[in-house]
């Protein structure tokens, strides 16, 4: 039926179709959620009021989208292939997702390709911090201590061509920088480095994309949705090129608040957890700590691709 949202649920080899709610209702609640999260991230207005708005919208979306499916999916890890406005969803904020491994993919075919791909990284790690973000530099310095063999680019050395060359074929990349999503031209969405923006067009120069990459930057996982659910943005380009797993943000995140999550995530990843589980456990552990901006930074990250 036109204007209605349906879920196709695949569990244990069985496929079920469920009618959920009106698309307009999801768009309304998601608009409220994202508005509240932006206000909290930029510390505008009353934190208590916007926290209440975010909580109400998150619980309503959870009741509309996931509660009707709980009897079928239980507490299993989730693979979500969104449609329409749901590409904008910061899924970990929903009560049914917090602490649960969740992977988000543009299509089931792309997720299957990523999930079944042979590990292709060459073992190298690359850590990068962009300019004008002191907390990003501190984040990358801490990661360099965890990965002493990693190639590190900070300050004036974090130049687009050098970073792209280092990322080519790497096992793990981490970029902490200013991010900007371009809704008018999503392939010009950018991560700001020392000599200018790194865009989706720069990523397309990679002969072999990094196997896993973390984009610790505002809106780095957002995509523009075109007819047929075609999505365009930094995340969709990396996944289409062959990156197996991408950790990126669906909302603005304050750089001073995201560092604890990123360091906890990498510790758990280094301990052998899968990316989606490492992110879920880090988010669960930190979601109630610190001021509201910290919460936004914690739940704003999403695992894309194969978790």
Description:
The chain is α/β, with parallel strands linked by helices and 307 residues long. It folds into two domains: 4-114, no CATH class; 119-305, 3-Layer(aba) Sandwich (Rossmann fold). 39% of the residues lie in helices and 22% in strands. A six-stranded mixed sheet has the order 6-5-7-11-14-15, sandwiched between helices. Strand 1 (4-11) and strand 2 (14-22) form a beta hairpin. Helix 1 packs antiparallel against helix 2, helix 5 runs parallel beside helix 9 and helix 9 crosses helix 11 (292-299). The model has no long low-confidence stretch (mean pLDDT 93).
What is the CATH third-level topology name of the largest domain? Rossmann fold
Give the overall silhouette: globular
Distance between the termini: 33 Å
Q: Low-confidence stretches at least 5 residues in length (pLDDT < 50)?
A: none
Query: Based on the structure given, which CATH architecture of the largest domain is correct?
Result: 3-Layer(aba) Sandwich
CATH hierarchy class name of the largest domain: Alpha Beta
Q: Could you spell the SSE succession in H and E letters?
A: EEHHHEEHEHEHEEEEHEEEHEHHHE
Largest sheet: 6 strands, mixed
In the sheet with the most strands, the strands line up as 6-5-7-11-14-15
> Would you count the extended β strands for me?
15
**What structural class do you assign from the helix and strand content?**
alpha/beta
Helix content range of the residues, please? Answer: 25-40%
């Amino acid at each position: 039926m036109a204007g209605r949202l349906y879920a196709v649920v695949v569990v244990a080899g069985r496929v079920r179709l469920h009618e959920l709610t009106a698309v307009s209702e999801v768009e309304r609640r998601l608009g409220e959620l994202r508005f509240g999260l932006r206000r909290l991230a930029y510390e505008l207005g009353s934190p208590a009021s916007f926290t209440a708005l975010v909580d109400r919208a998150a619980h309503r979306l959870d009741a509309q989208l996931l509660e009707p499916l709980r009897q079928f999916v239980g507490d299993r890890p989730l693979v979500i292939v969104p449609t329409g406005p749901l590409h904008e969803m910061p899924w970990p904020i929903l009560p049914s997702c917090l602490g649960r491994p969740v992977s988000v993919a543009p299509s089931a075919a792309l997720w299957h390709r990523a999930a079944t791909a042979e590990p292709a990284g060459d073992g190298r790690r690359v850590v990068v911090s962009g300019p004008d973000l002191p907390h990003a530099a501190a984040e990358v310095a801490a990661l360099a201590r965890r990965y002493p063999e990693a190639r590190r680019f900070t300050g004036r050395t974090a130049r687009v061509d050098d970073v792209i060359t280092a990322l080519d074929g790497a096992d793990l990349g981490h970029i902490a920088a200013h991010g900007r999503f371009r809704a008018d031209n999503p392939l010009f969405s950018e991560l700001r480095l020392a000599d200018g923006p790194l865009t989706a067009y720069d990523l397309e120069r990679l002969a072999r994309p990094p196997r896993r990459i973390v984009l610790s930057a505002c809106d780095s996982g957002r995509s523009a949705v075109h007819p047929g659910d075609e999505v365009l943005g930094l995340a969709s380009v990396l996944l289409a090129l062959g990156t197996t797993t991408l950790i990126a943000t669906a909302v603005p995140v304050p750089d001073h608040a995201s560092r604890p999550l990123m360091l906890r995530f990498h510790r758990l990843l280094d301990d052998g957890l899968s990316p989606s589980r490492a992110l879920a456990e880090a988010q669960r552990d930190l979601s109630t700590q610190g001021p509201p901006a910290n919460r936004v930074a914690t739940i704003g990250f999403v695992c894309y691709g194969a978790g």
